[in-house]
Protein backbone atom coordinates (compact mmCIF):
# COMPACT_ATOMS: atom_id res chain seq x y z
CA UNK A 1 0.00 0.00 0.00
CA UNK A 2 1.49 3.35 -1.08
CA UNK A 3 0.41 6.48 0.78
CA UNK A 4 0.83 9.81 -1.03
CA UNK A 5 3.08 12.33 0.75
CA UNK A 6 1.68 15.38 -1.05
CA UNK A 7 -0.47 16.34 1.91
CA UNK A 8 2.45 16.09 4.33
CA UNK A 9 4.67 18.15 2.02
CA UNK A 10 1.99 20.79 1.68
CA UNK A 11 1.60 20.96 5.45
CA UNK A 12 5.36 21.33 5.91
CA UNK A 13 5.53 24.08 3.26
CA UNK A 14 2.64 25.94 4.87
CA UNK A 15 4.26 25.61 8.30
CA UNK A 16 7.60 26.95 7.03
CA UNK A 17 5.93 29.84 5.20
CA UNK A 18 3.83 30.70 8.25
CA UNK A 19 6.92 30.55 10.50
CA UNK A 20 8.94 32.86 8.23
CA UNK A 21 6.02 35.24 7.88
CA UNK A 22 5.45 35.41 11.60
CA UNK A 23 9.18 35.84 12.20
CA UNK A 24 9.30 38.77 9.78
CA UNK A 25 6.20 40.23 11.39
CA UNK A 26 7.77 39.83 14.82
CA UNK A 27 10.90 41.64 13.60
CA UNK A 28 8.83 44.52 12.22
CA UNK A 29 6.80 44.71 15.40
CA UNK A 30 9.93 44.68 17.56
CA UNK A 31 11.52 47.40 15.42
CA UNK A 32 8.38 49.46 15.61
CA UNK A 33 8.14 48.99 19.36
CA UNK A 34 11.79 49.98 19.88
CA UNK A 35 11.44 53.01 17.63
CA UNK A 36 8.19 54.06 19.23
CA UNK A 37 9.63 53.56 22.69
CA UNK A 38 12.73 55.67 21.85
CA UNK A 39 10.62 58.43 20.36
CA UNK A 40 8.25 58.37 23.31
CA UNK A 41 11.13 58.60 25.80
CA UNK A 42 12.68 61.49 23.88
CA UNK A 43 9.35 63.31 23.71
CA UNK A 44 8.77 62.84 27.43
CA UNK A 45 12.30 64.03 28.22
CA UNK A 46 11.89 67.13 26.00
CA UNK A 47 8.59 67.98 27.66
CA UNK A 48 9.97 67.53 31.17
CA UNK A 49 13.06 69.59 30.44
CA UNK A 50 11.06 72.44 28.92
CA UNK A 51 8.58 72.44 31.80
CA UNK A 52 11.37 72.37 34.38
CA UNK A 53 13.30 75.16 32.60
CA UNK A 54 10.19 77.35 32.54
CA UNK A 55 9.57 76.72 36.24
CA UNK A 56 13.17 77.64 37.05
CA UNK A 57 12.86 80.80 34.97
CA UNK A 58 9.58 81.71 36.70
CA UNK A 59 11.06 81.09 40.15
CA UNK A 60 14.07 83.27 39.25
CA UNK A 61 11.74 86.02 38.10
CA UNK A 62 9.64 85.79 41.28
CA UNK A 63 12.78 85.86 43.40
CA UNK A 64 14.05 88.92 41.63
CA UNK A 65 10.74 90.73 42.11
CA UNK A 66 10.84 90.22 45.89
CA UNK A 67 13.77 92.58 46.43
CA UNK A 68 14.51 96.16 45.47
CA UNK A 69 17.89 95.28 44.06
CA UNK A 70 18.75 92.83 41.21
CA UNK A 71 19.81 89.34 42.23
CA UNK A 72 22.98 89.64 40.16
CA UNK A 73 24.53 92.21 42.55
CA UNK A 74 24.93 89.58 45.28
CA UNK A 75 28.42 88.27 45.87
CA UNK A 76 29.35 85.31 43.69
CA UNK A 77 29.25 82.67 46.41
CA UNK A 78 26.03 84.01 47.91
CA UNK A 79 24.44 84.22 44.49
CA UNK A 80 25.48 80.66 43.70
CA UNK A 81 24.08 79.34 47.00
CA UNK A 82 20.85 81.26 46.54
CA UNK A 83 20.30 80.04 43.00
CA UNK A 84 21.26 76.44 43.90
CA UNK A 85 18.55 76.42 46.54
CA UNK A 86 16.14 77.66 43.95
CA UNK A 87 17.22 74.91 41.53
CA UNK A 88 16.91 72.21 44.21
CA UNK A 89 13.39 73.35 45.11
CA UNK A 90 12.24 73.05 41.51
CA UNK A 91 14.19 70.00 40.28
CA UNK A 92 13.26 67.86 43.28
CA UNK A 93 10.03 67.07 41.40
CA UNK A 94 11.95 65.84 38.30
CA UNK A 95 13.83 62.61 38.91
CA UNK A 96 17.36 62.40 37.49
CA UNK A 97 17.32 65.92 36.04
CA UNK A 98 20.16 68.44 36.27
CA UNK A 99 19.70 72.21 35.96
CA UNK A 100 20.70 75.71 36.92
CA UNK A 101 21.06 79.20 35.57
CA UNK A 102 23.27 80.97 33.08
CA UNK A 103 24.01 84.61 33.88
CA UNK A 104 24.39 86.21 30.47
CA UNK A 105 25.94 89.46 31.76
CA UNK A 106 28.57 87.57 33.76
CA UNK A 107 28.96 84.81 31.12
CA UNK A 108 28.93 82.04 33.67
CA UNK A 109 26.83 79.25 35.18
CA UNK A 110 25.32 79.61 38.63
CA UNK A 111 23.22 77.45 40.95
CA UNK A 112 24.04 74.19 39.15
CA UNK A 113 22.39 71.04 40.52
CA UNK A 114 23.70 67.66 39.23
CA UNK A 115 21.38 64.71 38.41
CA UNK A 116 20.03 63.20 41.60
CA UNK A 117 20.50 66.35 43.66
CA UNK A 118 23.40 67.48 45.77
CA UNK A 119 23.32 64.32 47.90
CA UNK A 120 24.31 62.24 44.86
CA UNK A 121 27.76 63.88 45.01
CA UNK A 122 27.88 63.97 41.22
CA UNK A 123 29.12 66.83 39.11
CA UNK A 124 28.21 67.82 35.59
CA UNK A 125 30.55 66.37 33.01
CA UNK A 126 32.07 68.63 30.41
CA UNK A 127 29.92 67.05 27.69
CA UNK A 128 26.78 67.71 29.69
CA UNK A 129 27.76 71.36 30.16
CA UNK A 130 28.43 71.60 26.43
CA UNK A 131 24.94 70.28 25.64
CA UNK A 132 23.42 72.79 28.08
CA UNK A 133 25.47 75.63 26.55
CA UNK A 134 24.28 74.57 23.10
CA UNK A 135 20.67 74.90 24.20
CA UNK A 136 21.39 78.26 25.85
CA UNK A 137 23.13 79.49 22.72
CA UNK A 138 19.96 78.96 20.68
CA UNK A 139 18.10 81.70 22.64
CA UNK A 140 18.26 85.23 21.22
CA UNK A 141 15.34 87.02 22.87
CA UNK A 142 13.52 86.98 26.21
CA UNK A 143 10.62 84.51 26.43
CA UNK A 144 12.22 82.00 24.02
CA UNK A 145 12.69 78.31 24.72
CA UNK A 146 15.30 76.12 23.00
CA UNK A 147 15.99 72.37 23.08
CA UNK A 148 19.20 70.50 22.27
CA UNK A 149 19.47 66.72 21.79
CA UNK A 150 22.89 65.05 21.64
CA UNK A 151 24.17 61.54 22.02
CA UNK A 152 27.36 60.11 23.36
CA UNK A 153 28.07 56.39 23.32
CA UNK A 154 24.96 54.61 24.42
CA UNK A 155 23.38 57.65 26.12
CA UNK A 156 21.16 60.40 24.76
CA UNK A 157 21.13 63.88 26.38
CA UNK A 158 18.22 66.29 26.20
CA UNK A 159 18.73 69.91 27.30
CA UNK A 160 16.21 72.76 27.41
CA UNK A 161 16.75 76.49 28.07
CA UNK A 162 14.26 79.28 28.76
CA UNK A 163 14.94 82.96 29.11
CA UNK A 164 12.61 85.18 31.09
CA UNK A 165 12.50 88.96 30.93
CA UNK A 166 15.57 89.13 33.14
CA UNK A 167 19.02 88.49 31.86
CA UNK A 168 19.34 84.98 33.42
CA UNK A 169 18.65 81.83 31.34
CA UNK A 170 17.27 78.77 33.15
CA UNK A 171 18.46 75.44 31.77
CA UNK A 172 17.72 71.77 32.47
CA UNK A 173 19.29 68.53 31.25
CA UNK A 174 18.27 64.87 31.37
CA UNK A 175 20.30 61.85 30.38
CA UNK A 176 18.57 58.81 28.79
CA UNK A 177 20.89 55.93 29.62
CA UNK A 178 21.55 53.32 26.91
CA UNK A 179 18.89 54.74 24.63
CA UNK A 180 21.19 54.26 21.65
CA UNK A 181 22.66 50.81 22.48
CA UNK A 182 22.47 48.88 19.17
CA UNK A 183 23.96 45.78 20.76
CA UNK A 184 21.28 45.74 23.42
CA UNK A 185 18.61 46.21 20.79
CA UNK A 186 19.98 43.33 18.78
CA UNK A 187 20.13 41.17 21.88
CA UNK A 188 16.54 41.90 22.67
CA UNK A 189 15.50 41.23 19.11
CA UNK A 190 17.39 37.94 18.91
CA UNK A 191 15.97 36.94 22.28
CA UNK A 192 12.45 37.70 21.10
CA UNK A 193 13.10 35.81 17.87
CA UNK A 194 14.54 32.87 19.78
CA UNK A 195 11.57 32.71 22.11
CA UNK A 196 9.15 33.05 19.23
CA UNK A 197 10.76 30.39 17.07
CA UNK A 198 11.11 28.08 20.05
CA UNK A 199 7.43 28.42 20.89
CA UNK A 200 6.52 27.99 17.22
CA UNK A 201 8.72 24.90 16.91
CA UNK A 202 7.31 23.38 20.07
CA UNK A 203 3.80 24.10 18.87
CA UNK A 204 4.52 22.44 15.54
CA UNK A 205 6.13 19.42 17.18
CA UNK A 206 3.26 19.04 19.65
CA UNK A 207 0.72 19.40 16.83
CA UNK A 208 2.45 16.75 14.70
CA UNK A 209 2.86 14.48 17.72
CA UNK A 210 -0.82 14.75 18.62
CA UNK A 211 -1.83 14.15 15.00
CA UNK A 212 0.38 11.07 14.72
CA UNK A 213 -0.74 9.83 18.12
CA UNK A 214 -4.43 10.16 17.25
CA UNK A 215 -3.94 8.58 13.84
CA UNK A 216 -1.81 5.67 15.03
CA UNK A 217 -4.11 5.17 18.01
CA UNK A 218 -7.17 5.01 15.76
CA UNK A 219 -5.50 2.53 13.41
CA UNK A 220 -4.29 0.34 16.30
CA UNK A 221 -7.72 0.38 17.92
CA UNK A 222 -9.31 -0.57 14.61
CA UNK A 223 -6.87 -3.45 14.11
CA UNK A 224 -7.53 -4.64 17.65
CA UNK A 225 -11.28 -4.60 17.04
CA UNK A 226 -10.81 -6.46 13.77
CA UNK A 227 -8.99 -9.22 15.63
CA UNK A 228 -12.06 -9.67 17.81
CA UNK A 229 -14.76 -9.01 15.21
CA UNK A 230 -14.16 -9.57 11.50
CA UNK A 231 -17.35 -7.63 10.70
CA UNK A 232 -16.00 -4.45 12.32
CA UNK A 233 -15.13 -1.58 9.97
CA UNK A 234 -12.85 1.29 10.89
CA UNK A 235 -14.56 4.71 11.07
CA UNK A 236 -13.52 7.59 8.82
CA UNK A 237 -10.29 9.30 9.89
CA UNK A 238 -9.09 12.64 8.58
CA UNK A 239 -5.79 13.12 6.76
CA UNK A 240 -3.45 10.43 5.49
CA UNK A 241 -4.55 7.99 8.18
CA UNK A 242 -7.98 8.04 6.55
CA UNK A 243 -6.45 6.40 3.46
CA UNK A 244 -4.89 3.73 5.68
CA UNK A 245 -8.25 3.09 7.39
CA UNK A 246 -10.01 2.80 4.01
CA UNK A 247 -7.35 0.37 2.75
CA UNK A 248 -7.73 -1.77 5.89
CA UNK A 249 -11.51 -1.80 5.44
CA UNK A 250 -11.14 -2.87 1.79
CA UNK A 251 -8.76 -5.67 2.73
CA UNK A 252 -11.10 -6.75 5.52
CA UNK A 253 -14.05 -6.83 3.08
CA UNK A 254 -12.09 -8.96 0.60
CA UNK A 255 -10.94 -11.22 3.40
CA UNK A 256 -14.50 -11.65 4.67
CA UNK A 257 -15.80 -12.46 1.19
CA UNK A 258 -13.00 -14.98 0.63
CA UNK A 259 -13.58 -16.65 3.98
CA UNK A 260 -17.33 -16.85 3.33
CA UNK A 261 -16.70 -18.50 -0.02
CA UNK A 262 -14.18 -20.93 1.45
CA UNK A 263 -16.51 -21.84 4.32
CA UNK A 264 -19.33 -22.44 1.89
CA UNK A 265 -17.17 -24.68 -0.30
CA UNK A 266 -15.97 -26.59 2.75
CA UNK A 267 -19.53 -27.05 3.97
CA UNK A 268 -20.67 -28.26 0.59
CA UNK A 269 -17.79 -30.68 0.23
CA UNK A 270 -18.29 -32.10 3.72
CA UNK A 271 -22.03 -32.27 3.26
CA UNK A 272 -21.58 -34.06 -0.05
CA UNK A 273 -19.42 -36.72 1.59
CA UNK A 274 -21.92 -37.25 4.39
CA UNK A 275 -24.91 -37.40 2.04
CA UNK A 276 -23.13 -39.92 -0.16
CA UNK A 277 -22.60 -42.17 2.82
CA UNK A 278 -26.17 -41.74 4.01
CA UNK A 279 -27.55 -42.51 0.55
CA UNK A 280 -25.43 -45.63 0.28
CA UNK A 281 -26.68 -46.90 3.63
CA UNK A 282 -30.34 -46.14 2.93
CA UNK A 283 -30.56 -47.64 -0.54
CA UNK A 284 -29.96 -51.19 0.68
CA UNK A 285 -33.04 -51.34 2.93
CA UNK A 286 -35.06 -49.54 0.26
CA UNK A 287 -34.28 -52.31 -2.21
CA UNK A 288 -35.51 -54.86 0.30
CA UNK A 289 -38.71 -52.87 0.86
CA UNK A 290 -39.36 -52.72 -2.85
CA UNK A 291 -38.89 -56.49 -3.23
CA UNK A 292 -41.27 -57.11 -0.37
CA UNK A 293 -43.93 -54.81 -1.76
CA UNK A 294 -43.67 -56.45 -5.16
CA UNK A 295 -44.25 -59.77 -3.45
CA UNK A 296 -47.29 -58.35 -1.70
CA UNK A 297 -48.58 -57.07 -5.02
CA UNK A 298 -48.51 -60.61 -6.41
CA UNK A 299 -50.48 -61.75 -3.41
CA UNK A 300 -53.02 -59.05 -4.01
CA UNK A 301 -53.68 -60.58 -7.37
CA UNK A 302 -54.76 -63.66 -5.56
CA UNK A 303 -57.26 -61.55 -3.61
CA UNK A 304 -55.40 -61.10 -0.35
CA UNK A 305 -54.85 -57.29 -0.64
CA UNK A 306 -55.92 -54.37 -2.75
CA UNK A 307 -53.38 -53.52 -5.41
CA UNK A 308 -53.90 -49.74 -5.27
CA UNK A 309 -52.65 -49.62 -1.67
CA UNK A 310 -49.55 -51.58 -2.53
CA UNK A 311 -48.72 -49.40 -5.52
CA UNK A 312 -49.06 -46.30 -3.40
CA UNK A 313 -46.35 -47.71 -1.16
CA UNK A 314 -44.22 -48.54 -4.19
CA UNK A 315 -44.61 -45.01 -5.51
CA UNK A 316 -43.56 -43.65 -2.14
CA UNK A 317 -40.45 -45.82 -2.20
CA UNK A 318 -39.65 -44.54 -5.69
CA UNK A 319 -40.04 -41.03 -4.39
CA UNK A 320 -37.64 -41.68 -1.52
CA UNK A 321 -35.15 -43.09 -3.99
CA UNK A 322 -35.49 -39.95 -6.08
CA UNK A 323 -34.84 -37.82 -2.99
CA UNK A 324 -31.71 -39.80 -2.23
CA UNK A 325 -30.57 -39.26 -5.79
CA UNK A 326 -30.95 -35.55 -5.31
CA UNK A 327 -29.02 -35.71 -2.05
CA UNK A 328 -26.17 -37.30 -3.96
CA UNK A 329 -26.19 -34.26 -6.24
CA UNK A 330 -26.21 -31.81 -3.31
CA UNK A 331 -23.54 -29.10 -3.82
CA UNK A 332 -23.93 -29.01 -7.60
CA UNK A 333 -25.46 -26.01 -9.30
CA UNK A 334 -28.03 -27.75 -11.53
CA UNK A 335 -31.80 -27.66 -11.08
CA UNK A 336 -32.84 -30.25 -13.65
CA UNK A 337 -36.58 -30.34 -12.76
CA UNK A 338 -37.13 -26.61 -12.45
CA UNK A 339 -40.26 -25.29 -14.14
CA UNK A 340 -43.04 -22.81 -13.59
CA UNK A 341 -45.78 -24.41 -11.52
CA UNK A 342 -48.41 -23.90 -8.87
CA UNK A 343 -46.82 -24.04 -5.41
CA UNK A 344 -50.08 -24.65 -3.50
CA UNK A 345 -50.03 -28.45 -4.10
CA UNK A 346 -46.44 -28.56 -2.84
CA UNK A 347 -47.51 -26.82 0.37
CA UNK A 348 -50.47 -29.17 0.87
CA UNK A 349 -48.36 -32.27 0.19
CA UNK A 350 -45.61 -31.12 2.59
CA UNK A 351 -48.22 -30.54 5.34
CA UNK A 352 -49.73 -33.97 4.68
CA UNK A 353 -46.35 -35.69 4.98
CA UNK A 354 -45.63 -34.14 8.41
CA UNK A 355 -49.18 -34.59 9.69
CA UNK A 356 -48.32 -37.71 11.69
CA UNK A 357 -45.55 -35.94 13.61
CA UNK A 358 -47.89 -32.98 14.26
CA UNK A 359 -50.68 -35.20 15.59
CA UNK A 360 -48.29 -37.00 17.93
CA UNK A 361 -47.60 -33.64 19.65
CA UNK A 362 -51.17 -32.37 19.26
CA UNK A 363 -49.93 -29.58 16.99
CA UNK A 364 -52.50 -27.96 14.68
CA UNK A 365 -51.26 -27.16 11.15
CA UNK A 366 -52.84 -24.04 9.63
CA UNK A 367 -52.38 -22.97 5.99
CA UNK A 368 -53.28 -19.38 5.06
CA UNK A 369 -53.31 -18.31 1.42
CA UNK A 370 -55.36 -15.71 -0.41
CA UNK A 371 -58.40 -17.31 -1.98
CA UNK A 372 -58.04 -17.57 -5.74
CA UNK A 373 -54.67 -15.80 -5.72
CA UNK A 374 -52.07 -17.46 -7.97
CA UNK A 375 -49.12 -19.03 -6.18
CA UNK A 376 -46.90 -19.75 -9.13
CA UNK A 377 -43.11 -19.75 -9.30
CA UNK A 378 -40.39 -21.32 -11.38
CA UNK A 379 -39.04 -23.95 -8.98
CA UNK A 380 -37.87 -27.51 -8.70
CA UNK A 381 -40.95 -28.93 -6.99
CA UNK A 382 -39.26 -31.89 -5.32
CA UNK A 383 -36.45 -29.80 -3.84
CA UNK A 384 -38.80 -27.02 -2.68
CA UNK A 385 -41.05 -29.66 -1.09
CA UNK A 386 -38.07 -31.03 0.84
CA UNK A 387 -37.27 -27.51 2.10
CA UNK A 388 -40.86 -27.05 3.28
CA UNK A 389 -40.82 -30.43 5.04
CA UNK A 390 -37.61 -29.50 6.87
CA UNK A 391 -39.06 -26.16 8.00
CA UNK A 392 -42.34 -27.77 9.13
CA UNK A 393 -40.56 -30.51 11.07
CA UNK A 394 -38.42 -27.94 12.84
CA UNK A 395 -41.49 -25.84 13.69
CA UNK A 396 -43.33 -28.92 15.07
CA UNK A 397 -40.30 -29.90 17.10
CA UNK A 398 -39.96 -26.36 18.57
CA UNK A 399 -43.67 -25.91 19.41
CA UNK A 400 -45.08 -26.95 22.80
CA UNK A 401 -47.93 -29.50 22.73
CA UNK A 402 -51.33 -28.04 21.87
CA UNK A 403 -49.93 -25.06 19.95
CA UNK A 404 -50.36 -24.11 16.30
CA UNK A 405 -47.90 -23.98 13.39
CA UNK A 406 -49.01 -21.41 10.83
CA UNK A 407 -48.00 -21.56 7.16
CA UNK A 408 -48.77 -18.53 4.99
CA UNK A 409 -47.94 -17.91 1.35
CA UNK A 410 -48.41 -15.07 -1.09
CA UNK A 411 -46.78 -13.13 -3.91
CA UNK A 412 -45.10 -9.86 -2.98
CA UNK A 413 -43.75 -8.00 -5.97
CA UNK A 414 -41.52 -10.33 -8.00
CA UNK A 415 -41.17 -12.87 -5.19
CA UNK A 416 -43.21 -15.69 -3.77
CA UNK A 417 -42.92 -15.65 0.01
CA UNK A 418 -43.72 -18.60 2.28
CA UNK A 419 -43.65 -18.12 6.06
CA UNK A 420 -43.53 -20.93 8.62
CA UNK A 421 -44.29 -19.67 12.12
CA UNK A 422 -44.14 -21.58 15.41
CA UNK A 423 -44.93 -20.69 19.02
CA UNK A 424 -41.76 -22.07 20.56
CA UNK A 425 -39.27 -20.38 22.93
CA UNK A 426 -37.17 -19.03 20.06
CA UNK A 427 -33.62 -19.78 18.92
CA UNK A 428 -30.95 -19.25 21.63
CA UNK A 429 -28.79 -16.15 20.99
CA UNK A 430 -25.55 -18.15 20.85
CA UNK A 431 -26.99 -20.41 18.13
CA UNK A 432 -28.45 -17.77 15.79
CA UNK A 433 -25.23 -17.22 13.84
CA UNK A 434 -24.72 -20.95 13.24
CA UNK A 435 -28.11 -22.47 12.47
CA UNK A 436 -27.31 -22.65 8.74
CA UNK A 437 -23.89 -24.23 9.34
CA UNK A 438 -23.64 -27.94 8.38
CA UNK A 439 -23.64 -30.34 11.37
CA UNK A 440 -24.71 -27.61 13.81
CA UNK A 441 -27.80 -28.65 15.76
CA UNK A 442 -29.51 -27.96 19.07
CA UNK A 443 -31.36 -31.30 19.01
CA UNK A 444 -30.11 -34.39 20.77
CA UNK A 445 -30.84 -36.60 17.76
CA UNK A 446 -30.33 -34.00 15.02
CA UNK A 447 -27.74 -34.18 12.24
CA UNK A 448 -27.43 -30.43 11.58
CA UNK A 449 -27.99 -30.89 7.81
CA UNK A 450 -31.65 -29.90 7.32
CA UNK A 451 -31.35 -26.09 7.40
CA UNK A 452 -27.98 -26.09 5.63
CA UNK A 453 -29.43 -28.14 2.77
CA UNK A 454 -32.62 -26.04 2.69
CA UNK A 455 -30.74 -22.76 2.44
CA UNK A 456 -28.53 -24.13 -0.34
CA UNK A 457 -31.59 -25.20 -2.34
CA UNK A 458 -33.21 -21.77 -1.93
CA UNK A 459 -30.00 -20.00 -2.97
CA UNK A 460 -29.86 -22.12 -6.13
CA UNK A 461 -33.34 -20.84 -6.95
CA UNK A 462 -32.06 -17.27 -6.62
CA UNK A 463 -34.02 -16.73 -3.41
CA UNK A 464 -33.40 -16.21 0.29
CA UNK A 465 -34.12 -18.08 3.50
CA UNK A 466 -34.19 -15.88 6.61
CA UNK A 467 -35.55 -16.08 10.12
CA UNK A 468 -36.82 -13.82 12.88
CA UNK A 469 -36.86 -15.22 16.39
CA UNK A 470 -37.87 -14.13 19.86
CA UNK A 471 -39.26 -15.45 23.13
CA UNK A 472 -42.74 -15.85 21.55
CA UNK A 473 -41.65 -17.97 18.60
CA UNK A 474 -39.69 -18.14 15.36
CA UNK A 475 -40.65 -17.26 11.78
CA UNK A 476 -38.74 -18.66 8.81
CA UNK A 477 -39.35 -16.74 5.57
CA UNK A 478 -38.63 -18.42 2.24
CA UNK A 479 -38.59 -16.17 -0.84
CA UNK A 480 -38.09 -17.31 -4.45
CA UNK A 481 -38.58 -15.39 -7.72
CA UNK A 482 -42.11 -15.71 -9.05
CA UNK A 483 -41.75 -14.08 -12.47
CA UNK A 484 -38.30 -14.62 -13.96
CA UNK A 485 -36.15 -17.72 -13.87
CA UNK A 486 -32.73 -17.49 -12.29
CA UNK A 487 -30.12 -20.08 -13.01
Structural overview:
It is built from ten helices and twelve strands. It has 487 residues and is an alpha+beta fold. It has a five-stranded antiparallel β-sheet. Strands 7-9-10-12-11 form a five-stranded mixed β-sheet. Strand 1 and strand 2 (108-113) form a beta hairpin. Helix 1 crosses helix 2, helix 4 packs parallel to helix 5 and helix 9 (381-398) packs antiparallel against helix 10 (450-460). The longest helix has 62 residues, at 240-301. The two termini are 38 Å apart. Mean pLDDT is 76; it is low at 1-5.
Low-confidence stretches: 1-5
User: How many strands appear in the DSSP assignment?
Assistant: 12
Main sheet attributes: strand count, strand direction, barrel closure: 5 strands, antiparallel
Radius of gyration: 56 Å
The termini sit apart by 38 Å
Strand percentage: 15-25%
Average pLDDT taken over every residue = 76
* Overall morphology: rod-shaped
Cross-sheet strand order for the largest sheet: 2-1-5-4-3
Report the order of strands and helices. HHEEHEEEHHHEHHEEHEEHEE
Class computed from helices, strands and strand pairing: alpha+beta
Helical content band: 40-55%
Number of helices: 10
